[in-house]
Fold Glucose-6-phosphate 1-dehydrogenase.
Amino acid sequence: TEKPTALIMIFGATGDLANRKLFPSLYNLFEKGKLDKFAVVGVARRSLSNEEFQLRVKESVKENGETEADIEEFVSKFYYHSHDVTDSSSYLALGKLAEELDSHYGLNGNRIFYLAMAPEFFGTIAEHLKKDKLTDVAGFKRLVIEKPFGHDLESAKVLNKQIRKAFSEDEIYRIDHYLGKEMVQNIEVIRFANAMFEPLWNNRYISNIQVTSSETLGVEERGRYYEKSGALRDMVQNHMLQMVSLLAMEPPIKLTTDEIRSEKVRVFRALRPVKGEEVNEYFVRGQYDKGSMNETDVPAYRQEEMVNPESNTETFVAGRLMIDNFRWAGVPFYIRTGKRMKAKSTKIVIQFKDIPMDLYYQPEKTVNPNLLVIHIQPEEGITLHLNAKKSGQGTDATPVKLNYANKGIDGLNTPEAYEKLLFDSLRGDATNFTHWDEVALSWSFVDNISAVWENTKEPSFPNYASGSMGPDAADKLLEKDGFFWWPIT
Ligand code: BG6
């Protein structure tokens, strides 16, 4: 593939995301020789000289691992612009700098505007970019925009309207960093490149699917944001529903951006709404209490910084989703995510139906159902749980596991999600970014749930100990259907 050339403007260049993810990812792309000509303008409020900014970039790259001798050459392409997001003259100055860099580096008028900052300014910035002519370019112009994309459907619509004034839908790259994860991208390949899975991938052979994304960290310094968000908006509206859509989608007729995204949209359209009284029947909310993690005591959510001591915000969500189409009728998709849980782990378990008759039945010992486990993180790989003969005399069946560890085979460390997504935005591939229709449909799904939760205080909060797997009600949710959560560790 051709190597991309562009001017990359990072709004929020002094922030955490830029430091932890964007600079190191750009460095990796540079170091692997994947970029042609490029320059970066860091944009943020505080005043910094180019040299001071370059030093910060260097530090960020160093903290993220070994650096090679070419780090000086890399940071020499970084410039800084101290910016006021509401002031046209600041945009005009930025535009002038952009033009100079464009001609100095020969960047063909290609521009990426990466918004990695407080979401309340996304709309304003997009409007100014157009009004102050930063989007008048000879090459491509693309907007890469971090989450959260709105707070609910209404605010997402407003934001979308604002950014659509300056960018068309195919110039907008809405980040969901889960879509950059190696094993999330692998879901489609596992499904569509294997004769053994796709024929079974439906309600005749699958009994239920379980998607867990658990974290050990608490809310850390993000109390102010999280109080207004909670796990439902922070994780379910985006990452969890995205994984569900990849698991449930029909095979696309081609692997193009449009075809893949429209199949995902159809899943969202088939998602059965959960509203009113059904919310507390099919969804469970949790909030972490104090507890012990790795032998250290950690505080309850309500004791965290910037958190209301009587907070009603959920730090855990479990839910049962139903997809009303021919393929999935009757198959529950269970999702579960939370902070301060027992382990940091993202896993998908596909549980196949029981065989028609168990020849190997013994009291208290039935054969295990077949499971396909997709390990998203920290390990990357797949495990297939089968049954085989116990060696020795007799015909007893015993569970065996076939394991594939992604890293073990490929040798190399798989690139970070952000590295892949940045590269995709540079080369113009929007497949692993969320289309507006996906965003809108997932907000309508989630809004029904927030409507109930925000208006009723959960008296049991805090209802799970830090270091546990969440509230008991999350187990009950599956028990009602005759299932249980397969252990994730
Ligand atoms: C982010 C959420 O989108 O995803 C965070 O805002 C969460 O609250 C994070 O911690 C989890 O991402 P990962 O890649 O560590 O699973």
Notes: Residues 408-412 have pLDDT under 50 and may be disordered. The chain has 14 helices and 17 strands. The pocket of 6-O-phosphono-beta-D-glucopyranose is lined by residues 147, 213, 215, 234, 346 (CB under 6 Å). The CA atoms of residues 245 and 267 lie 6 Å apart.
